[in-house]
Amino acid sequence: MLQNRSPALLLMAMAAALAGVFFSPGRGMAEESHLPNTKLLAHDPKAPIDYATEMVDGIDRFLLDQTAQSLQKRAAHWKRDFSSPEAYNRSVEPNRKRLAYLIGASDKRVAFDGLEYVATTSRPALVAKGPNYEVYNVRWPVLDGVHGEGLLLTPTTGAPIANVVAIPDCNQTPEQLCGLAPGTPEESQFARRLAESGCRVIVPTLISRKEKVRNISNREWVYRCSYELGHHVIGYEVQKILAAVDWFSTQTEPRLKTAVVGWGEGGLLALYAAALDTRIDAACVSGYFDDRSDLWQEPIDRNQFSLLSQFGDAELATLVAPRKLIVEAARAAEVVMQPVGSGAPGRIVTPTLAKVQAEVERARKLTPKFSAERYQLVTSGTDGKGPPGSGFALESLLAVVSAEGKLQRPLGQLTAAAPLADAAAREARQVQELEQYNERLFLGCQKVREKFFWEKLNYDSVEKFKASAEPLRTYFANDVIGRIELPVQPANPRTRLVEENDRWKRYEVMLDVFPDVFAYGLLTIPKSIKPGEKRPVVVCQHGLEGRPTDTIGEKERAYYSAFSTELAERGFITFAPQNPYIFRHRFRSLQRKANPLGKTLFSIIVPQHQQIVDWLQTLPEVDADKIGFYGLSYGGKSAMRIPSLVTDYALSICSGDFNEWIAKNISARYPNNYLFTPEYEMFEFDLANTFNYAEMVGLIAPRPFMVERGHFDGVGTDEAVAGEYARARRVYAVGLKMPERTEIEWFVGGHKINGQGTFAFLQKHLFEQLRPVTKGDAP
After folding, report:
1. Burial zone of 737 (CB within 10 Å; 0-12 exposed, 13-18 middle, 19+ buried)
2. Which of 174, 256, 440, 723 is the Cys-Cys partner for 151 at CB 3.0 to 4.6 Å?
3. CB count, 10 Å around CB of 440?
4. Number of Cβ within a 10 Å radius of residue 739
């Protein structure tokens, strides 16, 4: 990750990266050759290949192909029963629960104690009067310390004919949707239109995409604070809508029907709310209905882990069925989020009418026993790009929820009774409430992990410990990292000798993994190996924006201290892989493509390393049982995740990364957290409730594990690192009674390979002889 680097260190890093784009053969190499039992890795000196670029491009193609294939795979998750409406709802209940989990809408809402009319000495609750309704500032309880807030439009000339939650786009205010503030054309003020037609309407405030800090929007900010907790800005706002439905259900009138209608982000929320809650009798979704194949390009606050493995918009529509869903093809709330500052890039475009039609038709085909009119498509404008809330769409909605419903045209006079609410202050309250709620969840998540992880381990013997950890490893692989379901391809190794001196030979290595996905790295073999002798291997992993060449350079170069070469000169075989976290937004877009499939960047990296280890074990010089992993920074992040799943790694060393990882990703109070930085791909869904770094060490154990920590390393604080390491050490010292298998080295320095205690640790656990080793010696 190489966070918090000094300017000098940054310059050295850039120089190292530029120097390593194309590998040049070293002096003293007799002739180009390759390893036995491998093919020659093709090489054209006139057109050298940048394998990092090829790797990222190949993974990109692979993930796009997996996204296209997800459409056919979703059917396996559905067991629809059409024998009756009741049977249908029971049959899709598991899908509803899964959706609620994925958007973080599973928390129990607080008991409803009434709608609060918000008034101050300077601003009464009543803010406006229409021809047959009044408008009030209101708020309502949702979760502990979390409220919905917005406007209530309530009839004054008779009982309401229906209850409606009218949801604006996130960049609209409730006042705009009600005609109280400029910004929304009169024909799109659907909250006001429904109120004049006799409906009781609640219009909630949404969190906007206005910038909060460093080009991070309010909406992305809440997303970042929530995602690792298994929560989401989408889930929180769905809960606010459903809490409004709770209030509707407490009113004393005869049972009125309830509808939700929304545009843009409001359309998204209307669809999700109706999919989750069968009390909603009808939904109208405007300017938001698509096949979601481009979800990775949308604003990151829409990033939902594993959504596309089970749901597209058509599948969500089938959760609304057999209730009425009106899809209005209308202009989307278009936006472009520029990749500047720390915010994530993203865009929203209006889908073509053909795409909207195709997704509606797909919903109909998924539920052939229901009338096609359960999903009604309404077109705004001739091309589906007209304004939202068209008369035909609202009339269709009113026809479902009330026999008396008739859309009023034209709009009547609306008279302000008081100054408007301070929209910015109201949104700030909404954001702050969710920040504080997330902080409370964070304070309790260690106890959640205790029950999820530690209580399941059996320390009666090493064998029982391993067996008890295996289901947890499976969960980590499937539900946190994300497992690629394809079989790994034959390695088809290609190698090329690129450098040689009197102490070692160095080879480029390429191995196939998946279609379009390969592993690549630099293998250094000491010449001191005797015939028939087998040596241990250290896999030396670079950090963010790094390359294998960074780990082999002169010792004075930057933070890597040439540790791959240094270890080779001490007698180890070393392998320096290229990992795909390089090229800034290019690799981060891989994470965006992977997440909706229930995958992460490590879904690719783990199979790459498994293929590397499997191939290394076939080499005659390699001791197959003694292959260790040693990584710096993002390579240290790799040292926590990869050996947890690639159990052929005999040990792991985490340098410049070990942390109270959950706090670093969730809490704005934690020094050097990721909430303010450009690393928007760092967040892993629901990690806080499952695996912090100590739990990952629990998956590495009983294999040896070490932390290398510089006192001045800005990735975290000594206190936080020590606290999390203490939890990890208990696995070895208290549980397994093997304290000698774990160590931490503190050194006076920063974000770098120190190479003192760690080299001794490698010597101790990978070489049987424990005598000191100097350069060029055979161990």
Report:
1. exposed
2. 174
3. 12
4. 12
Q: At what angle do helices 265-276 and 313-320 cross, to 10 degrees?
A: 50
Q: Is the pTM of this model over 0.85?
A: yes
- Residue 336, classed as helix, strand or coil, is strand
Residue 2 predicted with pLDDT over 80: no
Angle between helices 51-73 and 585-594 (to 10 degrees): 20
727 vs 444, 713, 734, 735, CA distance in Å? 16, 21, 10, 11
> Residue 392 and residue 407: Cα distance in Å, rounded?
9
Instruction: Please write the tens of the pLDDT for every residue from 35-86.
Output: 999 999 988 888 889 999 999 999 999 999 999 999 999 999 999 999 999 9
- 745 CB-near residues (< 8 Å, 6+ apart): 706, 707, 708, 709, 754, 756, 757, 758, 761
Spatial CA neighbour of 574 closest among 614, 525, 623: 525
Helix (H) or strand (E) holding 263: strand 258-263
Q: Which helix (H) or strand (E) holds 234?
A: helix 233-250
Residue 155, CA atoms < 13 Å, CB-side half-sphere: 17
| C-alpha distances in Å from residue 432, one per residue of 218, 227, 409, 665 | 10, 16, 40, 17
> Please, which residues bridge with residue 155 across strands?
133
The three-class DSSP label of residue 247 is helix
User: What percent of the chain clears pLDDT 90, i.e. is strictly above it?
Assistant: 86
Q: For residues 636 and 541, what is the distance between their CA atoms, to the nearest angstrom?
A: 8
Q: Give residue for tokens 């892993």.
A: 684
Distance from C-alpha of 735 to C-alpha of 460, rounded to nearest angstrom: 9
The Cα–Cα gap between 590 and 295 comes to 12
What is the per-residue pLDDT across 714-743, written as a single tens digit (0 to 9) for each? 999 999 999 999 999 999 999 999 999 999
Query: What CA–CA distances, in Å, run from 625 to 320, 531, 618, 656, 704?
Result: 54, 19, 11, 26, 13
Helical pair 693-700 and 634-645, crossing angle rounded to 10 deg: 50
For residue range 77-114, what is the model confidence (pLDDT) as tens digits? 999 999 999 999 999 999 999 999 999 999 999 987 77
The Cα–Cα gap between 42 and 242 comes to 60
Integer Cα distance of 713 and 41 in angstroms? 39
How far apart, in whole angstroms, are the C-alpha atoms of residue 717 and residue 749? Answer: 13
What does the block give as tokens for 88?
Answer: 């249908």
pLDDT tens digit sequence for 220-253: 999 999 999 999 999 999 999 999 999 999 887 7
Q: Is the peptide bond before 410 cis (omega within 30 degrees of 0)?
A: yes
Helix (H) or strand (E) holding 149: strand 146-155
Separation CA 84–CA 322 (nearest Å) = 10
Question: Minimal CA–CA distance to 77: which of 91, 87, 88?
Answer: 91
- Name the helix (H) or strand (E) containing 346: strand 346-348
Q: Are 385 and 331 in contact (CB under 8 A)?
A: yes
Sign of CA pseudo-dihedral 176, 181, 184, 185: positive
Question: Exposure pattern of 307-318 as b/e (b: 16+ CB <10 Å)?
Answer: bbbbbbbbbbbb
Q: Where are the alpha helices (DSSP H) in 74-103?
A: 85-91, 93-102
